[in-house]
Model the fold of this input.
Amino acid sequence: MWPDQQDTEQLLAAARTGDGDAVNQLLDRHRVAIRQMIDLRMDHVIKRRVDASDIVQEVLIEANRRLAEYLKNPIMPFHLWLRQMAKDRLIDAHRRHRGAGRRSMDREQPLVAAAATESSVDLLSQIRDQELTPAAAATWHELQSRFQEACEQLDSLDQEIVLLRHFEHLSNSEAAQVLQLSPQAASMRYLRAMRRLRQFMDGTNTENSAEHA
Amino acid sequence: MKQVVHSEERDLELADILAEITDRSAAKRPSLEQITTAHPHLADELRALWGTALLVDAVASHSHNDITPLVRTKLTANLQPPRVLGDFELLDELGRGGMGIVYRARQQSLGREIAVKLILQGSQASELDKARFQAEVAAAARLEHPNIVPIYEVGEVDGWQFFGMKLIEGQTLAKLIAQGPVPDREAVRLVLDIARAIEYAHQRGVIHRDLKPANILVDQDGVPHVTDFGLAKHVSAGSSSLTQTGAILGTPAYMAPEQAAGNRGKVGPLSDVYSLGAILYSLITGRAPFQGASPVDTLFMVLEQDPLPPRLLIPRVSRDVEMIVLKCLQKPGELRYTSAGALAGDLHAYLDGESIIARSGRLTDVVARVFRETHHATVLENWGVLWMWHSAVLLVMCLVTNWMHLQRAEWPVMAEPWPYLLLWGGGLAVWAPIFWALRHRAGPVTAVERQIAHAWGSSIVAVMLLFWVEDLLNLPVLKLSPILGLIGGMVFVMKAGILAGSFYVHATAMLAMSIAMAEMQRQGFEYGVSIFGLISAATFFLPGWKYYRQSRENVSKRPSL
Done:
């Protein structure tokens, strides 16, 4: 979901030479991805009070302000840098609206929200959208709810790594950087998360595995 | 305690493989089969992880689409279509398909009974739905084939879109299958007709994409008619904006793995070949190739498991029919029949009692599989430079050996085994630790590499022991040198199994070298060992160079962090 990194590198190089157009392009091309990253994680209650596009706007403004600093010392890939700012803003928003420390973003269940559809009408339109036959739509529906149920049983770090790897399409090393883990630790985390997910998604041994967890 | 250590090591390896596979884009991932043959000891778990990853991808791409939903009109309660649509008077509902309801209707002008398919959302359909409906009809209406239900007329009345098609009196193939297994020849005859119809559609750029028994009507003469090109998509249209990728389409029990996987791979004519095989399977056995407790379980099975061979379920099924079915149901598309036409050809051959290509074709499949690189081949990227160095060391040692041997007339000690043992033993004692240390610097050593190191180490031991054997048998030194080729050949056969089938070529070269060296010795030609050195250096240098370049390319492609 994040834009092509080679093009980003070129734009960054242009931005270093003071090309204002490049800066605009650079920020603009990340807008959709930031929006998606936020949408994936914003809790339903906050969604009603805070407009996600406001957060995106704030992130881009902050990025613009701090760009010179970043260009001098690019400590991480650009998209991860933007992501970091977006995450901080999200945590702030959750604190403000849900009470500090009561429910931090980390304790939310982002995947559950990500997989859930708002209403059945929406689901119906989605299904039509994808030209599903009724049988396939039933499969889809079941897959989605199985996934949702399985996610509810994962702990938050496991959820987060699944989100990073499959929903944001970050590589293992990028996910490691975001979570401040070594690449090996991240890959082990991911393995563990996928194992559990599979266990919980497998209809036959849900009870057993729930006991283990 | 020991077991804990073992399982942690195993987990590290699994985590490594999983991270690597999922790092690649969907199109560049190896097939499940490649992964499991490369890591047979982890196959079961890799299979489960793989299926899970694909399904999570499917859910993820679905929810991405969800984030920016298309603006569309809301559904309203009134979904009752008018009783008369233009020339057609609707009588009763026959069934529901992908996006429509099928009615029995009367065409008033011609006074005949036909079937009318009506778009499900009726007058409330969005423009997108309407465009899709038009595309579907346009694709299907151009098809004229005795085994495809013909479309008569397309229309729109008060926003209701519909088309009229021939009414087939009879039953669906699904009902036929529900009555139990069908005799081989009868099943083959039915699928032959269907396969020909599908081949005809493919040639006109139309893929069915939802072939299943419920979409095939069998008339009273027992002739099958394919209907509901409801998911048909123009091949030529390329990345059609009308059809979202990443969607799980079709019915899980009959759909090809590439369809089940959502965004992995391309759904194309070979997906229909798979479905044809699945239909034949269910005709001869009375059940679909995969039947999970729920659709999602079926999905997992389609992605991860091999179907039970039909003869295991129904022993009277002919071996040829089983071969044909299993060839269609291959998970990688390239191992199936190349087209629906090719499948039809084989079905025809079976009916005529001729030999089928599913058997002979299997040989080429085996050859193709044999020469494919396994997933382990990537470990070779760490070895590229080392192998090039190794080839240099080998060449120098062989040349020195040959030179020493030539000096034996003036220098009698060179007819003894000791100088050679010193050279090889000493040389390898220095080189092997350097080699291994260099390898360690490139990162942790995997289990596979340890296996290869074992094969290699044993060959070194064998080479050293040859000198002793020669001595014990009172043979002149280097008399047994042709055996070097045999040892080298065996090591390369092992590498071929573990790493990449192309090493069979190297193995053959080494084995042939052994015969050639024996012949040279017979003819009194004294440079056999040098030539052996050149050949064996080449067998290391060439792959070393290839993988060195490959790893360089991969490094430059990796995003800078």
